[in-house]
Write a structure and sequence with these properties.
alpha/beta, globular, 383 residues, binds magnesium ion, 15 helices, binds NADPH dihydro-nicotinamide-adenine-dinucleotide phosphate, 15% strand, four-stranded mixed sheet
């Protein structure tokens, strides 16, 4: 029985993770869960999963809800630090990090420092502090198993392979809803249009990232650290059907791909059950119907974000943390309908150009760079 702490239990990945746990009740016990602003949903989940402790980081828990948790003998932590407290002190074997944004970085690091294995959806963890996390993971002999579908695909393609045989990691991406739009129309893209992803149903932040292809940019950096692979060996392939979740090209010219329906429960279950597999009831990809798979290169004119990822990796140090934070702040402003769609990537680029990079940063320096980038974006938009 694996004991799991789910950070971000009320989000898109969180809910799917609980779904996986529910279908394998003999394998998993959920010992801790967190939410930011949905204590009532957390309570419903807790009634089913009976964790020992829960955390609510972004709102006040009503007396009634608190009493309901008490009746279930569940300890309730509150406040922004509560998520870190769960990571540091709760009892679990695997930390499943499904919070969105830079806020996920320190809880991952704290769990790794305790020698806990990680199932990682929070890609921002590796984007911000991949070097630090890897160093700690190596010291503590901790496994970081990705949930992000592309990285899960690569992880699975690499089972039984050696790193030295990798010629390239081929990250696939749908290209988002604006792949076929002319560039001239990008500035008029609305919030509602950007929130409609063609293949995946996800939280709002990553959905906007998919529309700017900043999601793929973050995934390039994530892949670099997860698979210890230099940037020049990481390529992006646009594959609009999202059937192939990513591929690995090996030194002998052979390519392995991982396929499946776009259903995040699959990579979540892989990360939760690793190093084993377990049965699952979800629908399968059927080959008795017409299935057309197409591929094309990404358009660097429309999607500048990809080039920014390679630039941030080349600069190293605090640059990826700045890219991530500037993007988070800009996406938030776009979601509040305060800036145009095209401003998101432009602001990230400006932040990268103006920031003073620090080599081999500590966690505190990474967080300072993160704060600087957020403030920079706010100032540019004068809000
Ligand atoms: P959601 O927005 O759906 O959920 C985010 C979760 O984190 C919620 O539980 C939310 O609480 C909580 N949260 C939000 N802000 C904070 C905060 N400041 N402090 C603590 N907790 C917070 O996101 P997703 O599930 O879509 O994404 C989660 C992570 O997984 C992201 O890093 C994303 O990039 C990655 N990912 C997601 C995929 C997907 O299919 N959704 C695919 C691949 C990767 P509340 O419910 O109260 O808002
Ligand atoms: Mg992904």
């Amino acid at each position: 029985m694996k004991r799991i702490a789910v950070l971000g239990a009320t989000g898109s990945i969180g809910v799917n993770s609980l779904n996986v746990a529910a279908q394998l009740p003999d394998d998993f016990r959920i010992t801790a869960m967190t939410t930011h602003k949905q204590p009532e949903l957390l309570l419903q989940q807790a009634q089913q999963f009976r964790p020992e402790v829960v955390a609510v980081t972004g709102t006040v828990v009503s007396d009634e809800t608190r009493r309901a948790f008490q009746r279930l003998h569940i300890h309730v932590l509150q406040g922004p630090e509560a998520i870190l407290e769960i990571s540091r002190n709760a009892s679990y074997d695997l930390l499943l990090n499904a919070v969105v944004g830079a806020i996920g970085f320190l809880p991952t690091l704290a769990a790794v420092d305790r020698g806990k294995h990680i199932a990682l959806a929070n890609k921002e963890t590796m984007v911000i502090g991949g070097a630090l996390v890897n160093r700690a993971a190596q010291q503590k002999q901790v496994h970081i198993v990705p949930i992000d579908s592309e990285h899960s695909a690569i992880f699975q393609c690499l089972w039984g392979e050696s790193a030295q045989d990798i010629e390239a990691l081929l990250l696939t991406g749908s290209g988002g809803p604006f792949r076929t739009w002319p560039k001239e129309e990008f500035s008029g893209i609305t919030r509602a249009q950007a929130l409609k992803h063609p293949n995946w149903s996800m939280g709002p932040k990553i959905t906007i990232d998919s529309a700017t292809m900043m999601n793929k940019a973050l995934e390039i950096i994530e892949a670099h650290w997860l698979f210890h692979t230099p940037a020049e060996k990481i390529r992006v392939v646009v594959h609009p059907q999202s059937v192939i979740h990513s591929m690995v090209l090996f030194a002998d010219g052979s390519i392995k791909a991982q396929l499946g329906l776009p259903d995040m429960r699959v990579p979540i279950q892989v990360a939760m059950t690793w190093p084993e597999r377990r049965p699952a009831p979800w629908p399968r990809l059927e080959f008795d119907r017409l299935l057309t798979l197409t591929f094309e290169p990404p358009d660097p004119e429309k999607f500048r974000s990809l080039a920014l990822a390679y630039e941030a990796l080349a600069s190293a140090g605090t640059a990826p943390a700045v890219l991530n934070a500037a993007n988070e702040a800009a996406v938030q402003l776009f979601l509040e309908e305060k800036i145009a769609f095209t401003r998101i990537t432009a602001l990230v680029e400006e932040a990268l150009q103006l920031h003073a990079n620090a080599a081999d940063p500590s966690a505190a320096e990474l967080l300072a760079a993160d704060a600087w980038a957020r403030q920079f974006v706010q100032q540019q938009c004068q809000v």
